[in-house]
Amino acid sequence: MKSVPVRLLLAAALFAAPALTPALAQSSPAKPAAMSTMKVKKVNINTATLAQLQTIPGVGPKIAAEIVDYRPYNNLAKFRKEIGKYVKSAQLEKMVPYITLK
Questions:
Q1: I need a labelling partner for 61 at 20 to 30 A (CA). Which of 13, 30, 70, 75 fits?
Q2: Is the pTM of this model over 0.70?
């Protein structure tokens, strides 16, 4: 007898779950839209200090020192070639939106 109310409660939960899903789906795209409108502050890797270079995501003291050692960078290809020796390509690509050469 006790299992009947439990089964009814579980059945009600299963039927109510899909009704909640559209509300969650509609609210989640708002985050990426807000993030895409944020302006990224770029760092000039040819003139930045070690501290300024470390504000780039994925750049710590060692990578910042390597960036300084290989200056000047005439183009992003040189940056990718030289710094790519020290970091994985995925990490390197995460840095690129935050750097400038001007």
A1: 75
A2: no
Domain residue ranges in the chain: 3-36, 43-100
Question: What would the pLDDT profile of 48-100 be if each residue is shown by its tens digit?
Answer: 999 999 999 999 999 999 999 999 999 999 999 999 999 999 999 999 999 99
The residue type at 99: I
CATH topology of domain 43-100: DNA polymerase; domain 1 (1.10.150)
Q: Which long-range contacts (CB under 8 A, 24 or more apart) does 57-63 make?
A: 57/94, 57/95, 57/98, 58/87, 58/91, 58/94, 58/95, 59/95, 62/86, 63/87
Q: What is the DSSP string of 15-54?
A: HHHHHHHHHHHHHTTHHHHHHHTSPPPPEETTT--HHHHT
Structure tokens at 93: 């690509």
Partners of 43 in beta bridges:
99
